[in-house]
TrEMBL record:
Residues 371-476 form the Pyridine nucleotide-disulphide oxidoreductase dimerisation domain. Its EC number is 1.-.-.-. Belongs to the class-I pyridine nucleotide-disulfide oxidoreductase family. Residues 16-330 form the FAD/NAD(P)-binding domain. SUPFAM superfamilies: FAD/NAD(P)-binding domain, FAD/NAD-linked reductases, dimerisation (C-terminal) domain. It comes from the Bacteria. GO terms for molecular function: oxidoreductase activity. It comes from Pseudokineococcus basanitobsidens. The lineage of its organism: Bacteria, Bacillati, Actinomycetota, Actinomycetes, Kineosporiales. This is NAD(P)/FAD-dependent oxidoreductase. It is an enzyme of class 1 (oxidoreductase).
Amino acid sequence: MSESTQQAAADEREVDVVVIGGGSTGENVADRAHRGGLEQVVLVEDELVGGECSYWACMPSKALLRPTAALAAARRVPGAAAAADGELDVAAVLTRRTSFTSDWDDSSQVQWVEGAGLELLRGRARLDGPRRVVVTASDGTTTTLVARHGVVAAVGSTPSEPPIDGLDGVPHWTSREATSATSVPPRLLVLGAGVVGSEMATAYRRLGAEVTLVAGSAVLSAFEPRAGELVADALRAEGAEVVTGSRATAVERDGDDGEVRLTLDDGRVLVGDELLVATGRKPRTGDLGLETVGLEAGQALDIDASGLVAGVDGRWFYAAGDVTGLAPLTHMGKYAARAVGDVLAARARGEATDEPAPWTPYATTALRQAVPQVVFTDPEVTSVGMTAQQARDAGIDVRAVELDLSVAGSALQADGYTGWASLVVDEDRHVLVGATFVGQDVAELLHSATVAVVGEVPLERLWHAVPSYPTISEVWLRLLESYGL
């Protein structure tokens, strides 16, 4: 055997499972597969172990939002308001944010991976045909892994930017720069009013920036219309400019750090010191080697209920998390990961050979039917399941019940409390298929709605789930009364 052949053989290993992507989704897939009895589970990551959520998304963004939300809440309660009249300590907010990212150091996450009995391989992974993954390290060396039982794509997503004239050549923020910034720009332009855009507009306005939020259609357009209206109203009340129904056509900047000029389709020119482009995300599959297994590079991975990727023979290629294009949320990625890791181990044991039935442990049913989400603006927006329009589009005979959130609990929570609530009822089955709550501190209402939707609890039985008084959850009683119970 030649030296080159010997080296190639040494750099090729057979293992049980290869998980591509060491974010929260990949970590959970690998852990569940290993706990299910698969000994050789390799986790491959080319950036920080822990992924987007830990370092550039969920954790740092909420750390930026929480101090100003607590201050605003105190100012709405006479007796506490006087104590909250001082200035916000912006430096302390940024320092606390950085603490949640461990200063962008993943040492503790690496320790967890190793302590869980998993192997971590640093490098960029690409498929190289069925069951084969080539990992290229930062020094250019490669290792080829061959998976006995499965390869799992958990590579997440990347920002998707619109085709705006000049954008490619203009330094600008994505969500990563927005959540890791070391200072607050005097003027911030935010392009895109989805979850990231709305949250960062809220955070930076309260941290002292002049903020202009530009929505192509409406603020939080994926939610019930009233939710976005209330968030837009709140931003305007705080001094932000909110532009709806406009699209950017061009952007230019004076040097790398000069002022940014954003031209809209109505001819207006907006000026800022930084530009955050938050117009959505796309699966990170452009360089995953999908073409070597018969798929198209850059596509979202279509999966069955167990996470198996459609269009690939042999029942070995799985996907979980943002890469599927379904419910790009950390908690939903972890939910899917648990199912994928468990079913991989079960199939290795000769069990769970068929596609799992809905609502069994190996199925990812909630990805399509009961996705809960919280938007940490002020007011908060929470939702689960379908909006009324989505339900109608799905052919469901729908009745929507909605009302202002005005109960004893909300009045105690804050003077001048502003909120709104909605239930989407499937009239044929008399169960909830969706719910939305908007208001200060409504995030804690969401899980009860999620249980009702997932459990398909009949409204007549839900009537007997008595909300405690005086809490904001009393809105459940008012909603069911409005329905007619």
